[in-house]
Every structure is written in structure tokens, then in C-alpha cells.
Amino acid sequence: MIESHLPAYIALTFVLFSVLIPVFGLWKKELSQPLAVIGSGIAAAFSLYGFINYLNNGAIRYYFGGWEPPIGIEFVYDGLSGFFVLVINAVAFFVLIYSGEPSKKEFPGKEMPYYALAMLMMLGFNGMILTGDLFNLYVFLEIASLSGYALIAIGEKPAPYAAFRYLIIGTAGGTLYLLGVGFLYTITGTLNIIDMTAMMPMFAESTAAVAALILMIVGIGVKAALFPMHGWLPDSYTYACTSSTALIAPIGTKVAAYILFRIILWLFGIELTDAVAPLSYVVGVLACIGILYGSIMAIAQSEMKRMLAYSSISQIGYIIMGLSLANPWGFAGAMLHVLNHAIMKACLFMISGNLRLKEGHSDVSRFDDSYRKKYPWTMASFSVAAISMIGLPPLAGFFSKWYLALGTIDNSNWLFLAVILISSLLNAVYFFRILEKVYMMDPEKGQKEPKDGTYNEVKASMLWPTTIFAVSLIVIGFANAVIVGILLDIFPM
Amino acid sequence: MLDFFTGHYAYWFTIILLCVGLYGILFKKNLIKKTIGLAILQISVVLYFVSIASKWDATVPVLDPNIPVDQVASYLNPLPHTLMLTAIVVGVATLGVAFTLLIAIYNRFNTLDEQELIEKIQ
Which of A85-99, A370-384, A433-447 has the highest mean pLDDT? Predict the structure, then answer.
């Protein structure tokens, strides 16, 4: 019985806890973080159960109030949405466990509003993924974005300005998306995605459909930080506090990428997308430029958080590139990269948070070899995550790039293949730079014991999520065949 | 040709508003003016939705005993209007968050000019 209501339960869990946290938080503010952990834990358990249920029994369509679409609105729990919901809720669960300590230090006394907003943001993200209605998607997009702006504005002195820039660009993007929905509504007369998919072949030559698609790609591309629309991302991620960045960075851009997948591969289908102009190739080229630009800018940064933010622009490029390939291998690679990058980026931002908490900075030029004695587990997790980002086997990052490369070979798209290879080398430059400072001896000084190497690791509630993510990268690396097998079944063609 | 302009004047008006909004967002240096541009951009889309709902010789979507229900051409399409109620609420919420952020920015930097802000941050 629980299965048929599952999509609604996942979203309702977050609604419930976004109300419970202010109620209990006003009474005892220490309760807000455990409540947020419980809320996201329940949602993650529902998503895991739902995904297993999807594998056994197939997709669920949940009609609100029993009104069948296209009149009513619905939540669709199919392979794609099930996978994304599982990834974001699992990552958010661990990040919320982690954020207990840093939140006490970074904004003492304001935990209650922070966690209530975090729950609202997760509601928005889950709703965006689950909804089967284009206008509902816009509403959930704005819920997630508005709480996201507020979360990003917590942090260093320039954080509100970074959040304001994100607000202006993000809302303009959301408005363009809404205009695109309007165009589609005028030609089809429906807002339901599945209903509209059935009608789309009638509008293959319609310029309104193409205009709607372009408006939607631009609007959602802003949220996904696709190359020319990425301007808001580096400042937002750098100045926001550790807890916010670790929560938003792994999840936010992935959910926007999900909408691009849903629109291009499901709603329009790749033939219709390319019917008038080779739009999918244009998106792919933008993704390639983004990959190279992000990697090169990351090399130029000395602040670790800013470096990771530019690296995010580059990694989202891989996911969009897999979308533009539109073949099973490219799709599986992109989906696997969604999972891998969510874990890797969460892990790396947590490590930068650990260092900020203990050292007071995360400036790469001031790293030295005493770190490996002071923070053995943090730095070990960093090595695993960094090597996975570069893409060395047997870690998870290698396999997503491998399947993406297979996809480019399938399409004989040698430009994209070259970009994947070059970008891996660039990733190696900016991550080995840190590994070298921490683990290699200084050739000038010769072999010597690391200075003041007393063990000074962060608390267990911060350390465990970091190491669990690092270990899961190894596990995913070995289990990649199973995951890709599932992902290949999700591919719509 | 002239028909194309006069026949679609509601859309031309929407396009002009859209361009005014985008201009405000892109080129104005004052953050308050940028926010105003954002509001105009959102309103242009709201007006677009409202204008696609209109019909000639149709009445409000409330059941009139003189007009049978199956005569749909006699009633306006209510859906875009209801959608836009939500979109207007979203717009108001966005403006609220934007002004909160502007107050925080002003308290920290004592200016709302983009050029001065960038200089103060670096």
C-alpha cells in the first residue's frame, strides 16, 4: 500500500520537517539539526525503498486527489526521477549530519531557521524531480531557488552580494523557463509532461516549439551553470558558509541537469530537438567549453573552495555532454557522473570545511606536509576524492569518464573525446598540486620529519561523513557494472 | 504586413516589456534598479500568459445559465489566470528575498552601486 503513495511521502517528509523544525527549534534550538537529519534520513530511506520497488515493479504515477492528468497534477516516479531522488536525498542526509559542528561555529544561535530553510530547499529539489507537470516544476524551482539564495547569503562578508547576483541571474532564468512553458502551453494546451510528449510529434516543424526549447535550455542552463550562464557560481560557493556549500554544491546543479535531461530526452526527444537546428550539438559544444574553462580557471585559483567551485562548472559540463551525445553509453556515463560528482564534490567541500574549521583558512598555497600528521583521515579522504576527480581506476570517477568516452566513440565525436582527455590532465594539475604539498617531501629541504605533527582531527560527526563518502567512491568504482546496467535500462530510446 | 503588427499588439507590448526588464538587469549599475528590472521581466511573462487566455466574444469563466457548458468558445480559459496567480506570488516572494539581501548588503558595505561593491570586495 505504501508503494502507491511513495512519491508524495518523499516530498511530504520535507514539508513536515520544515514545520517541525521551527516548532521544536523555538523550544530547544539544539534539536533543529537532529530533526533535519531525521527528516532527510526518512526521505532517503523512502527513496531507497522506492528505487528498489521501481526495479521490481516498475514506475509509479501518483495522482493528487485522485484527479487523473491532464486535468489533475501528478508525481512521476520512474527510473530517472527515482535515481536522482535517491542520489540527492542520500547525499543530503550525510551532509546534514556533517553540518552540525560547522553550523554551531559559523552562525551560532541561528540553527533553527537554517535547517528549516534547508528542508524547504530539499522539498523544492525533490518536487522538481518528481513532478510530472511543467508549471509545478517552475513553482518547485522557485521554492528551491529562494531558499537556496537565503542559504548562500549566510557566510562571509560578501556572501549577500554573491547571493543577490545569483538571485538576479537565477530568477531571470526561471522567468525565461516560464515563458518557454507558456509557448508550449499555447501550442499543445496541456502542461502534463507525459501528455505533452504524446503530442510533440505534431509540432516537429513548429517554430514555437523550438523557441520554447531554447528558452527552457537557457533558463535551466542558468541553474545548471552551463558555460556562458555560470557567472553566479564561483562567488556563491566561495563566500557561502561550509554547511551551505556542502549542501548546495553537490545537489543544486544536478537537479537542473535532471530537468535538461527530462526536457531534451523525454519531452522533446532527440529527433525533435535536432529537427530545426542541431541544438543538442550546440549544448554539447557549450558543455565542452565549460569543461575546459572550468578546469583552467580552477588551476588559476589558490583558495580551495573557489578552485572546487570552478571545478564544479567543469564537472557539470561532463553531465551535459553525456546528454548531448544522446546514446546509451553517453547517458549511462552522465548518470554515473551525477552520482560520482555529487559524492566527490560533497566530500571535497567537506574537507575544505574541515580545514577551515581547524586551520582557519583553506588557502592551497599555505598547505604544508604537517597536514598529513595532523589530519590523517581528512587528507586520506582528500586523496581518494581527488584521484577519483582526475579519473584513475578503480575509483568511481574513472568509470563515468570511461562510459562518456565510449559514448563519444559511438557517435564518432572526436572533439568531445579530446576534451574529456585534456580535461582529465587539467584536473590532475590542480589536484596533484595539493597532494604534492601534503604528501611529497620538499626537495630543497631534503627528507625530514613533518613539523608539529600532533593529531588534530575534526570531531567524529564531521569526520565520518567525509570518510564514508571517500569509501563509497571506491565501492561505486567496483560496483559500476551493476549501476550502469540499471542506468542503461532507464535510457528512453 | 501591417496586420501582423496590429493583430499581435498584445505580444509586441509583452516583448517590449521583456526587453525593458532585460535591459534593467543587464545594464543598470544600481542594485535597486536591477531588482526593478527583474520585476518588470516577471510581469511581462505574467502579461503574456494573461493575453493568451483571452478570446473575442467570450465571458468570464463562471457558469452562466444562458450559455451551455459545452460551448467552450464562449468562456475564457481560466487556467493561465490561475497559473499566473501562483507566478505573481512567486514574484512577490522573490522581491522580498531580494530586498532582504539588499538590506544586508547595504549594512555591510554602505553602498548599493555595483562598481563600488566590486571594488570594496576586492
Answer: A85-99
**Cell triple for A54:** 521501481
Cβ atoms < 10 Å from Cβ of A4: 13
Contact A179/B34, CB-based, under 8 Å?
Answer: no
Interface contact B86-A146, CB threshold 8 A: no
CB of A133 within 8 Å of any CB in chain B?
no
Domain ranges of chain A: 314-493
Tell me the pTM: 0.93
Q: From the candidates A134, A138, A164, A179, which should be mutated to test the interface with B, based on the most B CB atoms within 10 A? A: A164
Average pLDDT score over residue span A322-338: 90
**Residue A278, preceding bond cis, omega within 30 degrees?**
no
Q: Give me the number of domains chain B comprises.
A: 1
For residue B68, the enclosing domain spans 2-121
Cβ distance of B121 and A146 shorter than 8 Å = no
Q: Does B67 touch chain A (CB under 8 A)?
A: no
Q: At what angle do helices B31-52 and B114-121 cross, to 10 degrees?
A: 130
CATH number of B50's domain: 1.10.287.3510
CA-CA-CA-CA torsion sign (A466, A468, A469, A473)? positive
The phi-psi region of residue A113 (left if phi > 0; otherwise alpha if psi is between -120 and 50; otherwise beta) is: alpha
